[in-house]
Amino acid sequence: MTNKKIDIVGVQIDLGASQKGVAMGPAAIRYAGLKDGFNGMDYDVNDKGDIIPLRDGESKPDMLHCEQVIDANKRLYHEVYDSLENGRVPVVLGGDHSIAAGSISAVSKFYEDKGPIGVIWIDAHGDWNDNHTSETGNMHGMPYSAACGFGPDEMVDYGQKPCYVSTKHCVQVAGRDFDKLEAERMRNSGMNIFPIYDVDRRGMYEVMKEAIRIASEGTVGIHLSFDVDAVDPAYAPGTGTPVLDGITAREAFLAAEMVAESGKLLSIDMVEVNPILDEGNKTGRLACELILSSFGKSVF
Q: Which of 97, 130, 182, 289 is the catalytic position?
């Protein structure tokens, strides 16, 4: 990556999830040494602080805490867009994964005149529900669908005329817990999906090689959205929706390192770190190091 200017912005939100605690995720990742790590790699780092959700707001059975989630995403959209306008690379710290609706929308809109962006979504879940298919109403299961124009549109439309991301440039990696209707919607959308058994059979190197090709071919670059629950709970216990038999920490680092080597990274989310459920900030440290690896930190 040639741009050595980083903006960090956190979102203290767990309202998109059923398990509380990920609102403290940004603090855990920072505490693990994120800024010092970037400084040690000669990056110019500006920490913009955290977005704090509204104290109260409207909630619907099919979109819980929708007013607060959408407001937080709208404010994140403006923070990310502002960073890009100032020539800086946004590093977004969650919070639950609902925040990706705001971050991806901003990146896609900013680059609209230059070309489409690609998205690599590394996650145990698809996050491809809308308010009609969600089994829980939790909005952290909807942002990827929303960012690609498959709804709910309220998550990404803040009056700016959204620039949706084409699914032909979008990839889901390491999924292993899809709702039935969600999986059907993903297949019908044209999404490129590499579930966990593809990682098992082909290896993370081959999967990420193909994912990076899909997300970068014909695009201006890649937004990486990384949910720590993609990693097996043995390595990342501090997350609210753990799913057994995930990728190893080493596979996660390989994925991050390959994104860095591509030179195509435009922006990143790191989400779903829950310090309440963690063991001595093990997951916070992992998330921190994965971010640094995505920006070129290496062991040699």
A: 97
62 given a catalytic annotation: no
**Active-site choice (269, 272, 278, 289):** 272
pLDDT tens, position by position, 38-68? 999 999 999 999 999 999 999 999 999 999 9
Q: Is 272 a catalytic residue?
A: yes
Q: Is 125 a catalytic residue?
A: yes
Structural domain boundaries, residue 192: 5-294
Question: H helices within the chain, ranges in order?
Answer: 25-31, 34-40, 66-85, 100-110, 143-147, 180-189, 196-202, 204-216, 249-262, 282-294
CATH of the domain at 241: 3.40.800.10
Q: Mark whether 223 is an active-site residue.
A: no
Task: Tell me the per-residue pLDDT of 134-182, one tens digit each, with 9 for 90 and over.
Answer: 999 999 999 999 999 999 999 999 999 999 999 999 999 999 999 999 9
The answer on pLDDT for 125 being more than 90 is yes
**In this structure, are residues 94 and 13 in contact, taking their beta carbons and an 8 Å threshold?**
yes
Q: Does some domain include residue 300?
A: no
Model's pTM, two decimal places? 0.98
| Whether residue 50 lies in the annotated active site | no
